[in-house]
Specification:
This protein is α+β, with helices and mostly antiparallel strands. The chain has nine helices and six strands.
Length: 191
């Protein structure tokens, strides 16, 4: 079964399967939340999705993420369904492994190279825009995931070490520190 959709989901008005319509990128980002979505993107960009089987209404695959995780996606009549063998996915949450399989199965992981639309986080209610997400190379995407999940103390030490090694990082960190102190004390930002 093939259905036709408008260009609002990144498929440019092309005919898509029910699976592609149910697991289009923007809906996956909203369903998973920003942090989980970025982690799933990272797994997809790093090629961690294996043994992918795609049908018009469902897909399955294995995601290599500290061990194999089996994922199943389904475009059901009552909405998209997912299942994963990870602890989060086993409880019914839309986990990073399901995001990765959805992006690879629907071809979303390669769409942004052609996408010139530059949606920012702020314009999408905190959801990262398609073009900003996929213009990152896999290394940058992996660093974003690390920075978003690193314990605070580890992140502080990493930044201070980087500032010791790089004058540009030290200057940027100092500028951010001054701006933060200004906001804490009600000072107006300088032009």
């Amino acid at each position: 079964m093939i259905i036709s959709v408008s260009g609002e989901n990144g498929h440019g008005g092309d005919a898509v399967t029910p699976l592609e319509a149910a697991f289009e990128e923007r809906a996956c980002a909203q369903r998973a939340g920003t942090d989980v979505f970025i982690e799933g993107v990272n797994l997809a960009l790093l090629g961690r999705v294996e043994q992918l089987r795609i049908r018009p209404t469902n897909a399955s695959g294995t995601v290599d993420d500290d061990g194999p995780h089996e994922v199943r996606l389904e475009a059901a009549d009552d909405g998209p369904r997912t299942g994963c063998t990870c602890p989060e996915g086993a409880t019914g949450l839309f986990c990073r492994h399901a995001v990765a399989v959805a992006l690879v199965a629907t071809g979303s992981a390669g769409l942004a190279e052609d996408d010139e639309d530059d949606d920012g986080d702020e314009e999408n209610g905190g959801i990262i825009g398609e073009s900003s997400l996929f213009t990152d190379d896999p290394v940058h995407a992996a660093m974003r995931v690390f920075l978003s999940r690193a314990p605070r103390a580890e992140l502080v030490e990493t930044l201070l070490d980087a500032a010791d090694d790089s004058e540009a990082v030290a200057d940027a960190l100092w500028d951010a520190t001054v701006a933060w102190h200004g906001r804490q004390h009600g000072a107006a930002p300088s032009p």
